[in-house]
Amino acid sequence: MITELSRNGFCVLKSHLAAPLIDACREAFWPMLTGYIESHCDQPNRGPNRHFLPMPFDPPCFAPEFFFDGGVLDIIRGAMDERVVADQWGCDVALPGSQNQEAHVDYQRPLFEETPDLSLPPYMLVVSFALRRITNADGPIEIAPGTHRMPREQAVRAVASREIELQPVPLEIGDVLIRHPWALHRGTPNTTGTPRPLVSIRYVRRWYSDNSRETNSIPLYIWNSLTPERQAPMRFPVGD
Ligand SMILES: O=C(O)CCC(=O)C(=O)O
């Protein structure tokens, strides 16, 4: 899997997370999601009919299994190092009426601005899973394989000319997508009548930080329920 991730910029672990945990997360999150959509319908923050919102850390929206899955962490740590931290927990929602996004990367600045195309080992990876099944009709994320290893302009040209095809990544409940945020990707139109929530955890090397996405705090009672070994890789504010 690490080889595939490093070659293509993404890999999918099929049927990996326990479906009941995801079902419980979706059931608890759905009223919050619909409330958010109602109050923000005029302020989409990821393009028309698309929203990003931070995920709550209250169970069952939060489950330690989402963050500390052994198989996922082996890949994340194997591709980066043992000291990675999680610093984002959020949800991308494509609503009915959403369009194709421009293919883009998920970092704001190159690490070394004077050498933007410097080829570097990964220092952030995004782990995503679907809160409900995502078929091609639901607006799956599409990723252009191999573009994380190319100079940006060349990658953009290769995708625009379709020399490299964007690949849709439909997800069943329990499937886990792991991707390099600098592989070109885009959200696609949700043609169903139901919101499409894709939740993500970002893991970064311990020395990296950019605060690029809003995050919620971890309630103190949840923080206190984690062992020191589990607290160490959670880089989130701790609330009351
Ligand atoms: O929702 C998706 O499928 C992808 C969203 C995305 O890449 C973004 O909004 O930056």
Written overview of the protein:
This protein has 240 residues and is of the alpha+beta class. The protein has a single domain, classed as Sandwich (Jelly Rolls), CATH 2.60.120. The protein has helices at 2-8, 19-40, 64-67, 70-79, 152-160, 220-225, 228-231; strands at 10-13, 50-54, 85-94, 124-130, 142-143, 167-168, 176-179, 185-186, 196-204. The radius of gyration is 17 Å and the shape is globular. It starts with a helix and ends in a 9-residue tail after the last helix. The mean pLDDT is 96. Residues 46, 92, 94, 106, 141, 185, 187, 198 line the site of 2-oxoglutaric acid (AKG).
Query: Based on the structure given, which CATH architecture is correct?
Result: Sandwich
Order of helices and strands: HEHEHHEEEHEEEEHH
| Cofactors, ions and other ligands in the entry | 2-oxoglutaric acid
If you average the pLDDT, what whole number results? 96
Query: What portion of residues belong to β-strands?
Result: 15-25%
Please tell me what the overall shape is: globular
Supply the number of helical segments: 7
Fill in the keyword field for this structure.
240 residues; alpha+beta; Jelly Rolls; 6-stranded antiparallel beta sheet; 9 strands; binds 2-oxoglutaric acid
Q: What order do the helices and strands come in, and which of them pair?
A:
Layout: H1 2-8, E1 10-13, H2 19-40, E2 50-54, H3 64-67, H4 70-79, E3 85-94, E4 124-130, E5 142-143, H5 152-160, E6 167-168, E7 176-179, E8 185-186, E9 196-204, H6 220-225, H7 228-231
Antiparallel strand pairs: 1-7, 2-3, 3-9, 4-7, 4-9, 5-6, 5-8
Bound molecules: 2-oxoglutaric acid (AKG).
2-oxoglutaric acid (AKG) binds next to strand 3.
